[in-house]
Amino acid sequence: MENKFVEIIQQPSYWVEEVNNLMYDAMVNYMESHQLNKTEFADHLNITKGRLSQILNSGEINFSLEKLFSIALKIGKIPNIKFEDTATYITKLENVQKKQYSTTPKTLNVQFASDVHHTTLKKAKKIAKTTD
Amino acid sequence: MGDLAGAINHLKSSANLLRLPVTKINIIEQKRLPAKCKLYEAKKNQIRIYFFHEEKTGRIIVTGGKKSTQKQDINAIVNLLREYYDGK
């Protein structure tokens, strides 16, 4: 496993966003499937309409654990949290990668603006060709 | 590193078909973009990761940057994408 990716999953903000994104998606789905407007949904969750708008606009949840779990339960979701051993998690990811790519795994390569040049274009074309 | 990790999670969540607000994944409207090419950015505070969607291929990450250089970065990406689509 690439060291950079291991470094990324060691960052708290990666996991904060994981929870934020799952919660946002679950809330929007519930609101739409139950055809609730913002006022009705805020009442259902027992939070203010302003707080709900803030969440729906920014996707930043920032609840206490108790409030987070309470909201999850109110939208019909069990907050099933588990703490997994880092090495086990990385091994699982590697196994998924092995299944997805029979050859060398492609790595997530984030470059910065000053690096944008023709080699990036060539790489992108190569990727497009190999995945066609 | 923290913001980059957050933005990468937005990419992952979006790839897993979670719905995200425009403050996290945003479509970039640019008249100079090639037809049918949709350019997106994943955002976390100052960090931006740019990617586009290509049919049958999926999402291709082009580059990353910071909010302060967003305008120049998008211009460079649009030029790159025009060249990419011209060469196809």
Features:
heterodimer, A: 132 residues, mainly alpha, 434 Repressor (Amino-terminal Domain), 65% helix, B: alpha+beta, YaeB-like fold, 2 helices, 4 strands, 35% helix, 32% strand
Tally of DSSP helical segments of chain B: 2
Secondary structure: helix percent of chain B: 25-40%
Biggest interface and residues each: A-B, 37 and 39 residues
Q: Specify the CATH class of chain A.
A: Mainly Alpha
- Taken from the alpha-carbon principal axes, the silhouette of chain A is elongated
* Cα distance spanning the termini of chain B: 35 Å
Question: Structural class of the secondary elements of chain B?
Answer: alpha+beta
List the domain count of chain B as a whole number.
Answer: 1
How many angstroms does the end-to-end distance of chain A come to? Answer: 25 Å
**Beta-strand fraction estimate of chain A:** under 5%
Poorly predicted runs of chain B: none
Structure, described:
The complex is a heterodimer of chains A (132) and B (88). Chain A has helices at 3-9, 12-33, 38-45, 49-58, 65-74, 86-100, 118-131. Chain A is an all-alpha fold and 132 residues long. Chain B is of the alpha+beta class. Helices cover 35% and strands 32% of the residues of chain B. Chains A and B meet through helix 1, helix 2, helix 4 and helix 7 of A and helix 1, strand 4 and helix 2 of B.
What is the fold's blueprint, element by element?
The complex is a heterodimer of chains A (132) and B (88).
Chain A: H1 3-9, H2 12-33, H3 38-45, H4 49-58, H5 65-74, H6 86-100, H7 118-131
Helix pairs in contact in A: 3-4
Chain B: H1 2-15, E1 25-28, E2 38-44, E3 47-54, E4 58-66, H2 70-86
Antiparallel strand pairs in B: 1-2, 2-3, 3-4
